[in-house]
Amino acid sequence: MKRLVRAIRKTTLGKRVLDDPLFRVLITSSGSMGWNLIYALFNGVLAIAYRSFWFLSMFVYYLILGGMRLLVVSPKKDRSAERWSDNAIMRTLGIEMIILAVVVSGIVCMAIAEKHNPSYNTVVMITIATYTFYAVTMSIINIVKAHKKKDATMIMLRDISLAGTIVAVLSLERSMLGTFGNAEDGFSTTMEIISGAVAFVLIIVIGISMIMQAKNNMKQKK
Hints:
By secondary structure, the chain is mainly α. Helices cover 85% and strands 0% of the residues.
């Protein structure tokens, strides 16, 4: 194992991967952004195929989260101004999270009022379930990393990942209700209301926690 590490360290890329934590974050985040984009496009295709306002909303939601990730992992040299510091970005993302929570609650309300949740085929259901499992797994990994490193970049990536996972679970539940249930029955409606309310509260909490974390960090620097 030590020989392998020494061999990797001899290469320019390998040395940077081993010695630069931010570069490692950039690499792993690039993978997450890639899957995020693919899943966003998948939702866009479903929006067209099923003429679904829900999947169109998911398409836009995941594009926004992708933009947030891109902002977080942008080169540090571009953040010399105070308005682009990690704390300023965290505070901005916190505000955006609160706005997203309100938007998600509106999407859920419109979806319930629409009473149109079609049944989906096996491929669609497997894809949604697989991405949701992936999102949950990555959220757990990001929680562990953020807890160990206490780094602002990792904290922001963790929170963005959690926001994506919450809505992924919400989307999976709605898809399952449409496929195996009835959009017009009381049980499906009740489940969507409860899940939508929980998602709204959790994303609001994430947003507030990001704002408070940024505020505390700024106080400690003074």
